[in-house]
Specification:
Length: 199
């Protein structure tokens, strides 16, 4: 069956709550929404060393893809994209303003452990006995929404700046690390290439 016909069928599928959390996690991290016909599609791309992570995301969202992940020689990375989908178009209105990614207010009301784990695997890393998130592309108010969401999970965090005001890094306090790890470890364990990010 031609890709266009398959894509039209896929557009009628509904995202499960699990799949929607995968998408939200990707949008919190490195995922982007780009135009595809009348709708928007999700694009996921990571360095070649993290191919296993790309494949993990692809497997979760495979129902909404018509082609497998591909190696990009120019970027030395792997990438896949979903079809354009009405639900992704709705998320685009929430996560973008004037072409720039922002965080919608509902993020502050709480993050699922799945979405948090994806944000961590995308933008987080270990530092001494805890972890931090590189949130350079986000505004101060966006970072505060993530802090608020973490607080709802009883995870305390501190905001620091890496040299200049627009380089924001959020640190999980050492006393909250065990709580944080309890949320994300079950997902990180599914992607062995990401295990190095947890102390």
């Amino acid at each position: 069956m031609p890709h266009l016909q398959i894509a039209n069928q896929v557009k009628r599928l509904r995202f499960t709550p699990f799949e929607r959390e995968i998408v939200i996690g990707c949008l919190l991290g490195d995922g982007t929404l780009s135009k595809s016909g009348k709708e928007y599609r999700l694009r996921v791309e990571h360095q070649a060393a993290h191919r296993e992570y790309v494949e993990w995301k692809y497997n979760q969202l495979q129902r909404f893809c018509v082609t497998a992940s591909q190696f990009l020689q120019q970027h030395q990375s792997y990438r896949f994209g979903t079809v354009g989908h009405p639900e992704l178009t709705r998320l685009r209105t929430l996560f973008y303003k004037d072409g720039r990614k922002i965080l919608p207010d509902f993020i502050g009301e709480g993050l699922s452990s799945l979405a948090l784990a994806i944000l961590f695997m995308d933008d987080g890393g270990r530092i001494n006995n805890t972890v931090s998130f590189a949130l350079h592309c986000y505004s101060q108010s966006d970072v505060e929404l993530i802090q608020k969401a973490l607080q709802r999970l009883n995870v305390d965090s501190r905001l620091h700046f890496d040299g200049h005001a627009c380089s924001r890094r959020l640190y999980v306090t050492t006393s909250s690390y065990a709580t944080f790890k309890g949320f994300v470890k079950p997902y990180v364990e599914q992607v062995p290439c990401m295990a190095y990010k947890l102390p």
